[in-house]
């Protein structure tokens, strides 16, 4: 029996996208010095949404100089005043959250259900949480009068554009730094709307500067000698390149990089709940999540039962128009990312893993990839080792808890892991042995501004969120 | 009657709880601060020695990081006890190495003993200071705890042959990491003798491994080693080309890097910076839902 759903589109009329946007430097929108622009498209339709200025080296120079000028005043403000600016920003984001959710869905391709219910509430919460820190830093455990670092260069990815901006900007401003932020080239719009939020909040000019651009813009920004702090979220390859760039400088570096999270299901786990967790672990945001549970480790005795239930559940996921309120799976963010997912899954098949694809129709325009499960995967398979960053799950099996730990830790990454079992002592023992920065027991993909997030090993270093996250922006 | 001829010590490396010579068979001449006095021939470690030391450190990591914090504290306190008993030996070695009077060297050895005591007391407190529950907005118990990073390569300071060495080494092992230490190139003898102290202090073999030799020869192997998780570049010297080169190499597997600092005063009371440099934060989310009639807590 097939359920038919009537279309339930969220209205686009709440957001007014201008045909062109500039760089946001020193409180004003400005063209790039060399006049270059690039187009940003909606991944679900390939419609051009806007034309955005592309920052070059001269613009990086201007933005860093503006942030430096603003630093003196901003860092000298009483913490209680900085706090009020951040509270204002949090409130304005809450007020404009529907507009920003629709904008994010248009520019990123993720379902409105996620931008509305996950991204935007977390963005506002992040500013609200850090606002409260601004005048309490002497209680944070970093000395009696912890000092800011100066100008923070921040480069963020396209998978959670506004949320990653919040993770970067909120702690930086709360601790008294000023920022130059480069959003990803495929998702620049919400950061530019955020510039308008700063304007409404009356934030002093130069405290936040936004430089849309490609990798070369980011490279110029992190290499700029006037920068005191570099924060990057993105691929492990680029993260290593940035670590080499800042070597030998005074710049403080934090990196939040890739992952290949193990989601471990024991035979005593409640299967239905576990299946929901597996689905949210790998299909949330089309699997374009650094902490995705992309490796399912299922105890051998329940492998068939779990896999059958999982396929049944995946078959009910609705893929399509991201603005439709019933949509579960939106578009892949770009043609480039779609090509990467396609290449890796082709390789998985070629190496002998068994491929299953959800029976769903893909729209004729835009970038789409149907939910996919590989079973019979071994640790040597590419789909068990490389981060795919798409809606692709690799299923491996284990017999004993020790084997599960060994397999889960057998990766260069160490960002996330999940444990599904009814036995409390097993949860604690497993959590203890997993080499990962975030472990979810009987849940997955939960985030909160009070909870430090970040990786072990090649998933990067430093933490974002919580008391721990402040350290990245303080001179300690 | 002639004066009794003293017995020299053959200084050897300390790797995996044993005292091997360099696999290369090489040694180099160690002289006192005035250059002309020969003190000993120290092993001139090779890159292979460095790799062997990493293997030993990795092998020891599971046991040491899994030991209780109380136990690690007891073991480090035992190091202080053993060192205290050898004060006169180390006073002589430090005096020779750094060209100090007996009194000044003795004061440094005392500080070194006290440094072990300070870190011995930290092992079972650092998790309480750094960790804690996070009040997330949902039905979860969310707890962050510090965990050791893994195998740490430590380039000991060049000038302070014993106090400096212990000041960079003790915090690494106090938090449950295992270490490969490259001793001061010019003054390696106190470090090599420290190996003898560690070997008799209940420190499991491989937790600390001590190499002597050319820092510039051994350090690149450690900085680029894919099974080393972090590097302390203190001994490379602040602002040197070597320090930059090592930091670049460390990026290959994203080692945590502690950069060298200028004018570090090892006699000062240490803060927690060196303890926290080689710790990871693990955050675990536990579901807490209600215990209603359904019995479900998911």
CATH topology of chain B: Aldehyde Dehydrogenase, Chain A, domain 1
Number of helices of chain A: 15
Query: Residue ranges of chain B: pLDDT <50 for 5 or more in a row?
Result: none
Name the CATH superfamily classification of the largest domain in chain A.
Aldehyde Dehydrogenase, Chain A, domain 1
What is the CA-atom radius of gyration of chain A, in angstroms? 22 Å
Class from secondary-structure proportions of chain A: alpha/beta
Mean of all residue-level pLDDT scores of chain B: 95
Q: Specify the helix fraction band of chain A.
A: 25-40%
Strand content of chain B: 15-25%
The main β sheet of chain A shows up as: 7 strands, mixed
**Topology, number of strands of chain A:** 18
Most residues in contact, chain pair and counts: A-B, 42 and 36 residues
CATH domain class name of the largest domain in chain A: Alpha Beta
- Give the percentage of residues in beta strands of chain A: 15-25%
**CATH A-level architecture of chain B:** 3-Layer(aba) Sandwich
How many helices of chain B? The count is 10
* CATH H-tier superfamily of chain B: Aldehyde Dehydrogenase, Chain A, domain 1
Distance between the termini of chain A: 61 Å
What are the secondary-structure elements of chain B, in order, as H or E? EEHHHHHEEEHEHEHEHEHE
């Amino acid at each position: 029996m097939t359920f038919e759903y009537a279309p339930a589109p969220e209205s686009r009329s709440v957001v007014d996208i201008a045909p062109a946007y500039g760089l946001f430097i020193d409180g004003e929108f400005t063209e790039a010095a060399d006049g270059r622009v690039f187009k940003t498209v909606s991944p679900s339709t390939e419609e051009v949404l806007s034309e955005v200025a592309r920052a070059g080296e001269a613009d990086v120079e201007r933005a860093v100089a503006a942030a430096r000028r603003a630093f003196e005043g901003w860092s000298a403000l009483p913490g209680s005043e900085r706090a009020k600016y951040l509270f204002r920003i949090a409130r304005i984001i809450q007020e404009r959250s529907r507009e920003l959710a629709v904008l994010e869905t248009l520019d990123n391709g993720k379902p409105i259900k996620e931008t509305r219910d996950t991204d935007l509430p977390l963005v506002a919460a992040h500013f609200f949480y850090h606002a409260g820190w601004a005048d309490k830093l002497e209680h944070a455990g970093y000395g009696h009068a912890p000092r800011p670092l100066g100008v923070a260069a921040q480069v963020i990815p396209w998978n959670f554009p506004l949320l990653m901006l919040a993770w970067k900007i909120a702690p930086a401003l709360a601790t008294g730094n000023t920022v130059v932020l480069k959003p990803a080239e495929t998702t620049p719009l919400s950061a530019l709307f955020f510039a308008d939020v700063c304007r409404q909040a009356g934030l002093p000019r130069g405290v936040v500067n936004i430089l849309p651009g490609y990798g070369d813009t980011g490279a110029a920004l992190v290499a700029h000698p006037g920068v005191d702090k570099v924060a990057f979220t993105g691929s492990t390859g680029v993260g290593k390149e940035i670590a080499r760039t800042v070597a030998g400088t005074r710049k403080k570096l934090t990196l939040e990089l890739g992952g290949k999270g193990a989601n471990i299901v024991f035979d005593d786990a409640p299967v239905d709940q576990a299946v929901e967790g597996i689905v949210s672990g790998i299909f949330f945001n089309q699997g374009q999540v650094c902490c995705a549970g992309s490796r399912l480790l299922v105890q051998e005795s329940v492998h068939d039962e779990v896999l059958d239930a999982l396929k049944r559940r995946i078959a009910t996921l609705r893929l399509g128009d991201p603005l439709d309120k019933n949509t579960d799976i939106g578009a892949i963010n770009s043609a480039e990312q779609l090509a990467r997912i396609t290449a890796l899954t082709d390789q998985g098949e070629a190496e002998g893993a068994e491929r299953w694809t959800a029976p769903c129709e893909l729209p004729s325009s835009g970038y789409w990839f149907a939910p996919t499960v590989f079973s019979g995967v071994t640790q040597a398979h590419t789909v068990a080792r490389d981060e795919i960053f798409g809606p692709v799950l690799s299923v491996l099996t284990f017999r004993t808890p020790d084997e599960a730990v060994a397999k889960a830790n057998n990766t260069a990454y160490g960002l996330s892991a999940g444990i599904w079992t009814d036995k409390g002592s097993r949860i604690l023992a497993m959590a203890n042995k997993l080499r990962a920065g975030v472990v979810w027991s009987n849940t997955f993909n939960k985030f909160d501004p009070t909870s430090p997030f970040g990786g072990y090993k090649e998933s990067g270093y430093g933490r974002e969120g919580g008391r721990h996250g402040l350290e990245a922006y303080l001179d300690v | 009657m002639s004066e009794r001829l003293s017995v020299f010590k053959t200084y050897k490396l300390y790797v995996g709880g044993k005292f091997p010579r360099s696999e290369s068979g090489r040694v180099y001449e160690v002289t006192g601060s005035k250059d002309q006095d020969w003190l000993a021939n120290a092993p001139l470690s090779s890159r292979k020695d460095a790799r062997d030391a990493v293997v030993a450190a990795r092998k020891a990591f599971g046991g040491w990081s899994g030991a209780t914090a109380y136990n690690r504290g007891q073991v480090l306190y035992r190091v202080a006890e053993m060192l205290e008993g050898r004060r006169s030996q180390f006073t002589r070695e430090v005096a020779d190495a750094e060209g100090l009077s007996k009194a000044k060297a003795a004061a440094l050895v005392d500080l070194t003993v006290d440094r072990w005591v300070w870190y011995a007391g930290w092992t079972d407190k650092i998790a309480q200071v750094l960790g804690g529950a996070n009040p997330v907005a949902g039905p979860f118990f969310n707890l962050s705890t510090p965990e050791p990073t893994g195998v740490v390569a430590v380039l000991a300071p060049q000038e302070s042959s014993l106090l400096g060495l212990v000041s960079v080494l003790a915090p690494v092992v106090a938090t449950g990491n295992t270490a490969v230490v490259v001793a001061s190139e010019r003054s390696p003898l106190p470090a090599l003798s420290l190996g003898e102290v560690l070997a008799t202090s209940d420190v499991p073999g491989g937790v600390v491994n001590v190499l002597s030799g050319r820092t510039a020869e051994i350090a690149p192997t450690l900085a680029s080693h894919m099974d080393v998780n972090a590097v302390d570049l203190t001994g490379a010297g602040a602002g040197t080309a070597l320090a930059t080169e090592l930091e670049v190499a460390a990026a290959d597997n994203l080692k945590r890097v502690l950069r060298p600092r200028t004018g570090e005063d090892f006699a000062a009371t240490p803060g927690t910076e060196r303890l926290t440099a080689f710790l990871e934060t693990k955050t675990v989310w536990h579901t807490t839902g209600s215990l209603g009639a359904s019995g479900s807590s998911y």
